[in-house]
Every structure is written in C-alpha cells, then in structure tokens.
Automatic annotation (TrEMBL):
Lineage: Bacteria, Pseudomonadati, Pseudomonadota, Gammaproteobacteria, Alteromonadales
UniProt-annotated stretches for the region Disordered: 194-213
GO molecular function: hydrolase activity; metal ion binding
InterPro entries per record: MBL_Glyoxalase_II (IPR051453), Metallo-B-lactamas (IPR001279), RibonucZ/Hydroxyglut_hydro (IPR036866)
Domain of life: Bacteria
Source species of the chain: Pseudoalteromonas ruthenica
Compositional bias segments (type: Basic and acidic residues): 194-204
Name of the protein this chain belongs to: Beta-lactamase
Keywords annotated in UniProt: Hydrolase, Metal-binding, Zinc
SMART domains noted in UniProt: Lactamase_B
Annotated ranges, domain Metallo-beta-lactamase: 12-192
One Pfam family recorded for the sequence: Lactamase_B
Length: 213
C-alpha cells in the first residue's frame, strides 16, 4: 500500500492518498481544502481515486470533499452518523475557522463502529472514537499495522475537546479503548503533524501517561 500525504489548508491538515499496490484502487482521506492541489497531486501520480473517506466533520478535514466527489464522480464515506450536526453547520464552521464560504453537504454513507471497509485488496476496520467530535472514526489496517487517526491523537498530544459536543473524558476513553488496544508497533497517521506509533504515545504522550494533570 502506498501512502501520500498532502498538507492542505492554513491548518496544514494531512490529507492522505492511500493506494492499494495490488489493485491500484485509491482513497482520498480527509481532503480538508485546496482541491486544486489535491487534483494536481493525483494527476501527477496517475492516480484515479475511487472513494473519499472522512474521519470527522471539521471543515479543515472535509472542505474539499464535495468538490472532489463531483470532480471524480465518487462517493464520500464516513464518518459515523453522530457527526451530522458538524456537516449541517459547515457554513458556520467556515466563519469559525476563517475559511471561504462553504455550502453544507452530507456524506453518501455513514460508517458504524466495527465495520470493515475495503480499498482494493486492503481491509480497514472502522473504530468509533468520540470525544474530539461525537462521530469521529479512525481507520485501522491490521495487515499494514497502521491507523489513520484524524484528530483523536497526535504525536505528544490529543485532540481539542473545547468545541461543541467535545468531551475530554470521552476522548481519553476512546484513545484507551480504540488506539492503545493496538500493538506498540502500529503506525499512527494523525490529521496534523508528524506520524507516530502506538508505543511512542503509550509511553511518552503526557495526556495518556498521566505525567500532566
Ligand atoms: Zn478536528
């Protein structure tokens, strides 16, 4: 599987292109903005995407999704349906984040915890991780030992919980249940910043190890 990272928006959100090596099927994950930049990167690499996956409904993760859906005639899949209020509020989010006006849209399909979704020959387990947002999901690929974790956890940090419907204890519980239950050698690909691993965060993340209050 090939993974390409394209930082988008002033928030430097990590839009990821996942490509199955066997089938050449490709997914765009969290296209937060800069649709021209994403299309250019795909064209340069000769990639024809087959689907868009979303971890959650914050504008810096979904801002280019509707444009790319129309451009490539593909579906938007995820997140979990508790996220709908963030999609309904996309116009307000544009003001909140200081982004260009955004017309609200919805995904084609909501995902549920425990579902398995495929990208060519690759299987991904969907895990529901509320806390940063209520319908946040992560995508876990056991055969490649990696997880796309959006804004649940970052290298040395965790997602913000001060937005509407955010909740700190819920986020910590999600991380312990759905992220730290993976083996230490699983790679964690976050929505912002460098990639990390389960082992690194288990031992060094101050929000988890309890070294901070
Ligand atoms: Zn977010």
């Amino acid at each position: 599987m090939k993974i390409t990272t394209i930082p988008v928006t002033p928030f430097m959100q990590n839009c990821r292109i996942l490509q199955c090596a066997q089938s050449a099927q490709a997914a765009i994950i969290d296209p937060g903005g800069d649709s021209d930049k994403i299309i250019r990167a795909l064209t340069q690499r000769g990639i024809e995407p087959s689907v868009i996956w979303l971890t959650h409904g914050h504008l810096d993760h979904v801002g280019a999704a509707d444009t790319l859906r129309k451009h490539y005639q593909i579906d938007i899949v995820g997140p979990q349906r508790d996220e709908q209020f963030w999609f309904d509020a996309l116009a307000q989010q544009a003001q909140m984040f200081g982004f260009a006006p955004q017309v609200p849209f919805l995904p084609d399909t909501w995902l549920e915890h425990g579902q398995t979704i495929s990208l060519g020959e690759q299987q991904f387990e969907v895990r529901h991780c509320p806390g940063h947002t209520p319908g946040h999901v992560i995508f876990v690929c056991h055969s490649h030992k990696l997880a796309i974790v959006g804004d649940v956890i970052f290298k040395g940090s965790i997602g913000r919980t001060d937005f509407p419907k955010g909740d700190g204890p819920t986020l910590i519980a999600s991380i312990k249940r759905e992220v730290l239950s993976l083996d230490d050698d699983y790679r964690l690909l976050s929505g912002h910043g460098e990639e990390t691993s389960v082992g690194q965060e288990r031992h060094k993340n101050p929000f988890i190890s309890g070294k901070f209050g």
